[in-house]
Amino acid sequence: PSGPALLFLKTSQGKEEGRRFYACSACRDRKDCNFFQWEDEKVSETRLAAREEYNRSHQPFFTHRQNAERYKNFVLLPLSKRRFCQECQQLLLPAEWEKHSDHQFLCDISTAQLKSPSRILYPLENKKTNAQYLFADRSCQFLLDLIIDLGFRRVLSVGTPRLHEIIQSKASQEEDFRVRSLLLDIDFRYSQFYAEDEFCHYNMFNHYFFGGEAARETCRKFLYQDNGERVIMVTDPPFGGLVEALASSFKKLMAMWKETGGGGHNSQEMPTFWIFPYFFEARILEFFPSFSMMDYQVDYDNHALYKHGKTGRRQSPVRIFTNLTPSMIVLPVEEGYRFCTICQRYVSSGNQHCEICNSCTSKDGRQWKHCVLCKKCVKPSWFHCNSCNCCALQNHTCEKTDAGCFVCGKTGHKRSTCPSLSRA
Ligand code: SAH
Ligand code: ZN
Ligand code: ZN
Ligand code: ZN
Ligand code: ZN
Q1: Which of 46, 86, 160, 197 has its CA 20 to 30 A from that of 225?
Q2: Cβ–Cβ contacts within 10 Å for residue 6, how many?
Q3: What is the tens place of the pLDDT at every residue in 121-172?
């Protein structure tokens, strides 16, 4: 139901060779989608037919076109007749109330509410891949201001429904607001609120447009820059997502942009903001060497990854990765960011320029310290351990762990000591 499966490799401990299998790209939890097939497995006709039947029965009840039609009727209703079923996550037309009579409603849905669907829909919570973490207003506004200041007029919002909605809502209210957005997201509930040229049902793990060629064309048209209206892609994927799969999709979207641009920007890459935790820096740079990580801490309304910093402010590990020139990304001085003239970029106030590394080395906003033995800056809480021959927490156990590292997948170390993290 989520489009083409991805090919994975199952490795067992100690063995070099693994066995390859296909599994769902969007659901890594087998409870959500149990599709599984060995690469070399023969699939019987009966099983194929059963699968097709399963896929058919897992299609949304209404199509996007039908939802768009329903929306038109919905906005014609007087306030007192505008209801949203919280259980079915669906805008209801009066004739349907009966069927939902024992469900919870939201009543008197205003036009303002319709323009902020992310505040009506409950955030999906699937722990691994479909978790929805919505931008705090401050971060959303910061992103929008930055996009405008950089001169972009079109935003391809990939998994950023809240950014999309402030853009769409401003565009409909302020006459001289020139920015437009197209939302690509796997959450089909949004099709109830947006027309077919504002939202495409899309899977960013396999670059799959559920709406087929027509949806693909919508995206292509949007990326086409006429009268110099510059486009930027902004994406905030679920953090459990596979970087490799995401990067592959983003490259395809970038290629789409390039194809539409004629000779104009042949050597360039589509300007992009990829919002992701800082500990994925090495992984992202592996696929996009042109990207660099900004110090800006992206804040969310409902995020579990927060730690409380010394200042009492929540410290978010989420950053912006971009292929734009770092010095152009102006970070708010009133939030404590400053410009480092040597690095030519804005950094956190705690991020001191290290003379030896010749760079502002902190990743998490705290002041890092240089270790001469490791020949690099490390977290303030780390000490050099002579038996591990690297810096680590004082109370770490020197034995290596068996579990694979979250960042590079190799065994022998954990995410916090992943060698690939410092490579950048
Ligand atoms: N901070 C963003 C939301 C990020 S949460 C904002 O406030 O706008 C991650 C988003 O990615 C969610 O909207 C979720 O629906 C979407 N998503 C999750 N898996 C996806 C997939 N496989 N393909 C496309 N979008 C996906
Ligand atoms: Zn209902
Ligand atoms: Zn510096
Ligand atoms: Zn240093
Ligand atoms: Zn050290």
Answers
A1: 160
A2: 19
A3: 988 876 556 678 999 999 999 999 999 999 999 999 999 999 999 999 999 9
Radius of gyration of the chain measured on its C-alpha atoms: 24
Residue 376 CA: which ligand is closest?
4
Best CA proximity match to 365, nearest among 377, 348, 380? 348
Which single residue is written with the structure tokens 């804040």? Answer: 299
Contacts with 42 (C-beta within 8 Å, 6 or more apart), sequence order: none
Q: Which residue is it, tokens 């990304």? A: 329
pTM over 0.85: yes
Which of 24, 132, 203 maximizes ligand 1 atoms within 8 Å of its Cβ, making it the mutation to test the pocket? Answer: 132
pLDDT for residue 381 is more than 80: yes
> Which tens digit of pLDDT belongs to each residue from 299-311?
998 765 555 455 5
Domain boundaries, the chain: 6-57, 64-114, 137-349
The pocket around ligand 1, CB under 6 angstroms, is made up of: 26, 129-130, 132-135, 159-163, 185-187, 202-205, 236-238
Helices 243-260 and 212-223: angle between axes, nearest 10 degrees: 70
* Beta-ladder partners of 90: 85
What are the DSSP E strand ranges found in 341-418?
345-347, 353-354, 359-360, 369-371, 376-378, 382-385, 390-393
What is each CA distance from 348 to 315, 344, 345, 356, 382, in whole angstroms?
12, 13, 10, 19, 20
Nearest 5°: the CA angle 136, 139, 144 is 125
Neighbours of ion ligand 4 (CB under 5 A): 354, 356-357, 370, 377
Those residues whose C-beta lies under 8 Å from the C-beta of residue 96, and which sit 6 or more positions away, are none
Question: In the CATH scheme, what is the code of domain 137-349?
Answer: 3.40.50
Report phi then psi at 247, rounded to 5: -60, -40
pLDDT higher than threshold 50 for residue 424: no
Ligand 1 centroid–CA 92 distance in Å is: 25
Mutate to test the pocket of ligand 1, among 32, 124, 185 (most ligand atoms within 8 A of CB): 185
**Contact at 8 Å (CB) between 368 and 380?**
yes
Q: In a mutational test of the pocket of ligand 1, which residue from 236, 244, 300 has the highest number of ligand atoms less than 8 Å from its CB?
A: 236
Closest alpha carbon to 423 in 290, 308, 310, 283 = 283
